[in-house]
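**Paired protein data**
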Amino acid sequence: MSYVDAPPFVAYLNIVQAKLGIFQPLINRLLVVILHLIATIFLILIVKNNHVIIPSNNRDNLSDKLLITFLLAYIIPIFGLYGIFILPDSGLILGLSLMLWVSDHILREGYISIKNSLLLGIGLGIGLLSKYHILPLGGGMLLGLYLDLAYRNSNQYSLRPLAMLIISVLLGLVIAAPLFIWNYTNHYASFIFQLQHGFNSNSWQLMSMVGFIFGAILYLTPWFAYMLFKYGVLKERRYYILIPVFCLCLILLISSLRKNILPHWLSPAFWLLIPYTVINSKSFAALKSMCKYTCIIWLVLLCILLIPGGLSNIKKVTKIFNPDTSGLADLLLWQELPQLFSRNMILQNSLTTLPKCNTAYKLIGTTRWYWTAQLEYQKVFAANYKILNLDLQSSNFYTWRDNLANFANCPILVISDRNNLSELSRLINIHKSYKIQGIGDYKSINLMVVEGIFKNTDMITFLQQNSLKHPHY
């Protein structure tokens, strides 16, 4: 796996699952589910440990608190099904949860033992191997913990907390060594790529920031967003919580002014607030009601999906109001592509007459990495077809995986959802092109099909090496 878009933790999970022979679409998320459960247990332990220090007259039932903590980790969309099955955040969430549990323990004890210092380092290392969010979140947590201890022990200055936290940082860096080694040997491509998220544009987009904020609220659901902010932020005075949350929020808000930022990038910060929202809540009955009704909504949606036809029922209902279902393409198109492509006789003729490359494979090209991924995953074409990504303008996993020079002078059929003949002409000699107007019920999605031959080795090598040295988001 390429390290460019994110550190390698998800790739490590895929390798382990491949070794175990786990390849089914849902089962191959098994390790992610397990890691999410372990992370949730750390949150539950925080609530349990803090319950015993709350005055008895202010205590709600402990079992209710533990249940609510568990539910919040699963029924809030960005943490639950969406987070588990779609987002690559499992390693980051696990590392942060471990660090949060240890930080909570340290603050209650009032000092950092060598054991807790090492546990903080392990959590930081796991986070560094997972997502770059760990830099403001994990780093902010360690800084906040130091300030918490300094404030609590203001009458006696000691270098021990600082020394223990330095050990944590060093251990985290050692664990994350594969990330730094890969970047060193690949022109620091991943670091440069990540810094372009909202920092390489000269334009300012206020509406982009507004959309980011509303998107984040919708992902959390407005009622839980309110509770997490009120009781996790406004009612909390622990720096190891507040500093990481505000650091990530500030970075992403600034980035959203310069570029469209995905709302779910903010979700790990709110994950840290779950146990303290439960601990500090003065409206526990309201929180329980929110969880109850959200569970009912999830059960209704689950029943709809379990009805024969599943997701296709949503499409049938949508067609009653609008025959063009292009708005559902990201959700449904990919599974239908094999059947839709098989019905297009012009495309089938192009596939039939496409010669093999060096008698081994027929080559199919795309101009977006996610088209390459979906065509491979959905097995849209037979095993004797090889899918290549030809987009050298946006760095991605395939930029590192495939050496396109190996296919120099080979015939290729390109399927593109954008009109970019000039860009393609840098890589291939174009012989013929035509458009497919609409794909089945997805009438607004138009494809351009290009028949051509890859250029020579020198030209392809020059273009790809330039892309590798100068990554673009």
